[in-house]
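Late entry, evening session. Most of the bench is empty. Finally got around to the prediction I had been postponing all week. Sequence below, unchanged from the version circulated by S.P.
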Amino acid sequence: MVCGGFTCSKNALCSLNVVYMLVGLLLIGVAAWGKGFGLVSSIHIIGGVIAVGIFLLLIAIVGLIGAMHHHQVMLFFYMVILFVVFLFQFGVSCSCLAMNRSQQETLLKSAWGLLEDKVKRDLEIQLDCCGLLNSTDTQAQFEKDLHNCTALCKKKSVCYTCGDMMLIHASEALKILGGVGLFFSFTEILGVWLAVRYRNQKDPRANPSAFL
């Protein structure tokens, strides 16, 4: 049978969802490993990564069952949810690639304000820095962070801010993140296309007079 047939579409869709399942399990495993070894102490970060992994895993299971049984309803919900995820991920990836330094600073300030004090101290120790950015609009927060900072650099004459150190690699990191996000977003639209194509194909083993 040619690769545009029923069996090929089914196998391609099943293979794609197996990859999604592995990625979902990998996210859950990495989050649990990071928490277990104390690399990330924030329960919100760990919970967010695990939630994304579980969500991806559930979508993959729905798509896999729908593909194996040619289940019309499951395939419909699968391709609708996957298309919504594609739109969101595509938008975020493009934003990462288009973000300039001023926008990066704004994003860092927003993220820093949401972090718990313990997470801030952990970051300062790992990066050997104190505070985020010593700017006019964040002066009070910076002085508070500098007072609570326990990084080794505080005992030296020079201690860089964490914001400056993170911004050095922020552009490169955002480009990588945006590129990886774009790659996976196109695999998602591939999944939607395969699901639509497979859903509209007739199972050669089924009753030829049955309604699809």
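Two things to note before I forget:
The chain has seven helices and no strands.
The mean pLDDT is 79.
Will write this up properly tomorrow.
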